Amino acid sequence: MYFLLSKILLFLLYPAFWVFIMFVIAVFIQDRKRKQRWLIVAVLLLYLFSIPLFLNLFARVWSVKPTLSKAPSVYSCAIILGGYTSIHQNGDGYFNGASDRFIEGVKLFNIGVAKHLLISGGNGTLMPSEYKEANWTKKQLLIFKVPDTSILVENNSRNTIENAVFSKRILEKSGLKPPYLLITSDFHMRRAFMIFKKEGLQVVPYPCDYSVGQGKDSFGDLMPDGTAWGEWNIYLKELVGYIVDKWK
């Protein structure tokens, strides 16, 4: 039920939805002063969530700093969280914009930092098909010459909580000793790191796939940019998810 509700009610988090509601309310309110207040608030939110500066400031606070240099130089396993592939119309998979998770995992294995790769990801869609992200990813790893004996597959999880629960079971059976590297996108790391620690897994954060908050601020960051809306959708989803998962 929690999984279903989280998918259905996701649109309620989006800033564009609330700005739209405020404009609708302003249209139907008869009192002129109240109408003006609603319009002012709507315009302010429209501007704040459209400028890269506000988004970059939040992203820097939200980001988890990597601690790879403070831990062992070689890890028994790196856990790569799913979300870096999408399902093609023909039912096959393909890499999407978060594919840096896969790239970093392969890189860490090839340079000897990670001895094994645990691919965690099933099918998180509301109407799941036979496609399993971890199964498809394993095929790609074999193409990249990663030995079958170095690949662990967790293909049943639908969200980050299940990533942690099912990965823990596999790691306990494998006999691989902690700590483990945890690889996921920068925007997702804070919530994922918290969930894995709550599950009792000793993990070292290895964020990647940086999208915002890394460059220097400029005057242009005060100008509205339509791409900021999409990034805010991602970050607000993570923020609310972090609060809910921490409370649970």
What share of residues is helical? 40-55%
CATH topology (fold) name of the largest domain: Rossmann fold
- What is the overall number of helices? 9
Number of domains: 2
Q: Report the portion of residues in β strands.
A: 5-15%
- The helix-and-strand class reads alpha/beta
Envelope shape? elongated
- Strand ordering within the main sheet: 5-4-1-6-7
User: What average pLDDT do the residues reach?
Assistant: 91
* Rg result: 21 Å
CATH architecture of the largest domain: 3-Layer(aba) Sandwich
Q: According to CATH, what is the class of the largest domain?
A: Alpha Beta
At the fourth level of CATH, the homologous superfamily of the largest domain is HUPs
Identify low-pLDDT runs: none
Q: Main sheet, how many strands, which sense, barrel? A: 5 strands, parallel
* Record field, number of beta strands: 7
Q: What letter string, H or E per element, gives the SSE order?
A: HHHHEEEHEHEHEHEH
What is the end-to-end distance? 14 Å
Characterization of this structure:
The protein is of the alpha/beta class and 248 residues long. It has two domains: 15-63 and 220-247, no CATH class; 68-208, HUPs (Rossmann fold), CATH 3.40.50. It has helices at 2-8, 15-28, 32-48, 52-62, 100-110, 133-143, 160-174, 186-198, 227-247; strands spanning 78-81, 85-87, 93-95, 117-120, 151-154, 180-185, 203-208. The strands form two sheets. Strands 5-4-1-6-7 form a five-stranded parallel beta sheet, with helices on both faces. Helix 2 runs antiparallel to helix 3 (32-48) and helix 7 crosses helix 8. The longest helix is centred in the C-terminal third of the chain and has 21 residues, at 227-247. The radius of gyration is 21 Å and the shape is elongated. The protein starts with a helix and ends with a helix. The model has no long low-confidence stretch (mean pLDDT 91).
